[in-house]
Amino acid sequence: xxxxxxxxxxxxxxxxxxxxxxxxxxxxxxxxxxxxxxxxxxxxxxxxxxxxxxxxx
Length: 57
Known about the structure:
Blueprint: H1 2-26, H2 30-56
């Protein structure tokens, strides 16, 4: 179950990142850039958690 939650988090975060990048290609927005940084950190953390859970399994 935990792995499914991590996978769902990754999928959602990647979709959000794609939308933020698309928006930021056409305009500069400091708030959106900070959101993109947050989403990137979330993706890295979820990916790391997924790697750790796979290593344990």
